[in-house]
Input
Amino acid sequence: MSGQDLFTLVLAGLALFFVIKKVLQPFRKKDKSCEGDCGCAKKPDHD
Amino acid sequence: MNPVIALVGNPNVGKSTLFNALTGLNRRTGNFAGVTVDWEAGQWQLDKDLNAELLDLPGTYSMAAKSPDEAVVVNTLRGTQEGAPHPVAVLAIVDASNPERNLYLLSQVLEQGLPTVVALNMIDIAEERGLKIDIKTLSDNLGVTVVPVQANSRKGLQELARAMATCITDGKVPPSPDTSLDDENKQNTKAIQARYGWARRMLVDALQRPDSQVDTFSDRLDRVLTHKVWGTLLFVVVMAVVFQSIYSWAGPLMDLVDSGIGAVSDFVGNLLPEGSLKSLLVDGVIAGVGSVVIFVPQIAILFLFIAIMEGCGYMARAAFLMDRLFSKIGLSGRSFIPMFTSFACAIPGVMATRTIEDNKERLISMLVAPLMSCSARLPVYTIMIGAFIPNTQIFGFIGLQGLTLLVMYMVGITVAIPVAWLLRKWLVQGNIPAFFMELPGYKMPEWHTVFRLVWSKCKAFLVRAGTVIFAVTVVIWAAAYFPRDAAVMEKHEGLRVQARATMNGEALEEKLGEINNIEAGALVQTSWLGKTGKAVEPIFIPLGWDWRITVGALASFPAREVIVATLGTIFNLGADEDAQSQSLSERLKSATWPDGRPLFNAAVALSVMIFFALCAQCGATLAVIKKESGSWKWAGFTFVYMTGLAYIASFVVYQTAIRVIT
Output
């Protein structure tokens, strides 16, 4: 496997990690993005 | 800490419009009740030295909360709303065209004992109806400052800020309305009469009514648009025009974007040497993300129509028309708003069910809302329709492609009807609730609101293309590119050496191109993606799909548009070199099964579209259903019933269509 192949595979691995994180995000308890990509604004933090 | 002010009023009186005007934020607005279902805060500068935090709240007719969105108002004013700060003052917004009913809520707000200022909005509509309000007299009667405003044209905002600053500085609690009610009687019928009696007393010398009822433009228009026959017919015509326009208007712009993407692909392709990096950029990123970006013009046109329909007041009429149909399946016209909202995105659609008082009706609406075709499905429909449905006219004026798109959008609502009926019958029994809905006056849409919605949706679409879709594309590319099967490469290298030894000139070039194409196809088939796709292909063969469509559909669970990007990548990686400059649509048309039969035809296109129309391919929607229903059970149920339904419907459609076509 060439260095170029290894580089693209690492990129793909990072992309996979990002996709999994993005898919699981709405299911996390503390997610405040509500509709996220669909345009709902985030609430300010009142802590 | 800045003082907190609660913005309170009836539904659809312009609260969010006023909130946006005062805070400079862009909260969603629309000319129908129930746009706002949760609270949001913004900074309002009252004067040079005084900033306040303004809380925009959902609309409510009274403080006796019946639905979850109304409960937000009551809880916020009482300081018990989770996450929301406790307000120290109230900005009560009153619709000048319907003051009596608005004062009913005000009577309850004043009882909360918080310093209050009244913003009298929609003075222009009141004047159109022949109503004249004496501001000073009303203010004296109520014992609070009343400021006339026109939120949509930003009139009276400085006076309102000054009045609010004075109100907060003085901290004067308004007199409690004299409704002669004790605590026990505050919620019963007697209380309703007493409150309306108080409202009438407040208005007796402050409101001048016309001698006779004014027949307004809205009244005249409603006689047609809410008519049982003409109204329904016009609704279908409006929808047909919308979907035909999506095709006819977007076409030239899409061609422009397509040629731009082609030019970028050629430029990058010529710049980089052969290898995985070039393939990642050309076959993965540009072919994949580019296939999705091309749909921005259609998304813009879809949301332009949605925003106009919301802004002019037609939405409420459509809900009124739908009530007749919905009441037969155990729902009411109230459920139409969440469903219509879901045509843009199911997440705000599910959240919009908070306006429904009846819990059972709310749950059913929540479970069927994701069946509506959201904007993420639009690219799937248009790529299939554009490639496999002929661009012909029926009766000389109805475009077949636009009609097919309309039918695809109707699939969701058509399937939702029996599903809702079955849910009402088996899972969530109960009586059909009565439907009351205020029909707002027609008005010209606020163009800045319309274009803001169009812009925000296009931006969100591009952000998705640049984040999730981009990332999925990279993953799909890697899975379809690696591992480079040494046996396949050696075999084809041998063929190339042989060709070079025996041929020359154009014949050699032609032969090498042929070998490269066969090698590309073989490498994709032996890739991780190819092997996985082949393993699951038998499950989807009855739907007319090969492994490439199958992996495209499976990869689309993070975001539906991914199918387009995935097909773009797979068909570019495995495509003939000549075909790589073609649009995805052309590449799909030339794709074949191993025996040479065309992979796609109208039956396969319909099967793919039906699957995407009905399948639950949105994790965020399932998460919102869990949050709104309070149970994983209903989120899981939605996933199972929608995905099962998608498979069965797709199977039936394909098996029927293939027999009709052949």
